[in-house]
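Ops channel
N.P.: pipeline sanity check, posting one input/output pair.
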């Protein structure tokens, strides 16, 4: 009777709390459509993999709460959420060529475009339009914006690790990350009469500017990948779906190159061997395994879990020399498998697991 009541209670908790939290988590994962989406998507997969038929409602409720807390830790200022959700739902609203702050850049007053152009290159408005090619004009505007908006990481500017800023916010502060610089650049180009789009890729934003002949060039690209999504002040164009963008994030060279370099260093292996067993021990403490929790079970899962992690790292090292782009994917799969193996007592002898399950069943019946 007690078991039935507990199950009913957890079911009610999941329906009233778990489902709303999980729905909000999935909603945020879809609309953020970038690096954070990939991180949250992977966490969701890990959470779903940890679900089991036994005590499903309790596990599902705890998973939903844990995922929400994980999301909250990455975007920890709820005061930003309404505006950020709105901007992610319609990213075109962060391209604002008609904003007063953007229009004021088209001025000869100190610190604005024509003053910068004349002071830096000795070029006035007449020379800009008559003696410069379109490509030169684009680069003049690019260099002006990069000078106008000082590069600062989001933590320094907004106190969070993810924030989609408007051009006005960036101009007023005079600083921002690549996203802030890009939306100012794109908005100002459009205001000046050019066809321009802001582009988002893994870990970077840049601008696509179209020439009068229909071709285009990229500004502030810094050798980054092709667009995941691009937008102007009128529309948003998704170049990839969520799965394609997640794959691009996971195989992006800016992540895999340092990872491959790290795994090829002997010092790394001297450090990771004890650390892997520490990770395994933490997983054993955090994961609710089936059966009665015993010291023997903890030791067995810790030792074999750490060994499995090290074998996975060795596999990663071998494959990274053949297919470097798969490094991060292999690492994530290894962690997921370790979690699953510990959760299901894979490292315990089958007869021990069966005995513990029978003991647990007898205890529940009593």
């Amino acid at each position: 009777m007690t078991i039935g009541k507990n199950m009913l209670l957890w079911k009610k908790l999941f329906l009233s709390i778990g489902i709303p939290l999980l729905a909000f988590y999935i909603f945020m994962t879809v609309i953020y459509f970038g690096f954070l989406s990939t991180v949250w998507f992977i966490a969701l997969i890990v959470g779903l993999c940890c679900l089991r038929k036994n005590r499903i409602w309790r596990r599902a409720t705890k998973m939903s709460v844990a995922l929400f807390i994980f999301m909250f830790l990455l975007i920890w200022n709820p005061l930003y959420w309404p505006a950020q959700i709105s901007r992610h739902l319609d990213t075109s609203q962060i391209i604002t060529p008609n904003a007063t702050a953007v229009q004021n850049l088209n001025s000869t007053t100190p610190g604005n475009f024509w003053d910068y152009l004349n002071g830096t290159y000795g070029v006035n408005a007449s020379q800009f339009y008559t003696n410069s090619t379109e490509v030169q004009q684009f680069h003049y505007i690019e260099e002006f914006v990069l000078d106008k908006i000082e590069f600062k990481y989001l933590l320094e500017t907004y106190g969070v690790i993810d924030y989609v800023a408007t051009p006005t916010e960036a101009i007023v502060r005079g600083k921002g990350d690549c996203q802030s610089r890009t939306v100012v650049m794109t908005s100002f180009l459009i205001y000046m009469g050019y066809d321009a789009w802001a582009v988002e890729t893994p870990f970077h934003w840049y601008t696509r500017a179209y020439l009068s002949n229909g071709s285009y060039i990229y500004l502030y690209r810094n050798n980054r990948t092709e667009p995941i999504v691009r937008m102007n002040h009128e529309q948003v164009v998704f170049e990839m779906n969520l799965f394609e963008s997640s794959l691009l994030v996971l195989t992006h060279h800016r992540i895999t190159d340092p990872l491959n370099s790290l795994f090829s260093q002997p010092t790394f292996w001297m450090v990771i061997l004890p650390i892997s067993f520490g990770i395994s021990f933490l997983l054993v403490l955090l994961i609710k395994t089936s059966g009665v929790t015993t010291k023997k079970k903890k030791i067995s899962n810790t030792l074999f879990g750490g060994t499995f992690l090290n074998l996975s790292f060795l596999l990663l090292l071998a494959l990274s020399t053949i297919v470097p782009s798969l490094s991060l994917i292999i690492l994530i799969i290894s962690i997921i498998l370790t979690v699953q193996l510990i959760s299901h007592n894979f490292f315990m002898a089958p007869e021990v697991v069966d005995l513990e399950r029978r003991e647990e069943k007898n205890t529940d019946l009593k």
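N.P.: looks fine end to end. The chain is about 65% helix and 10% strand.
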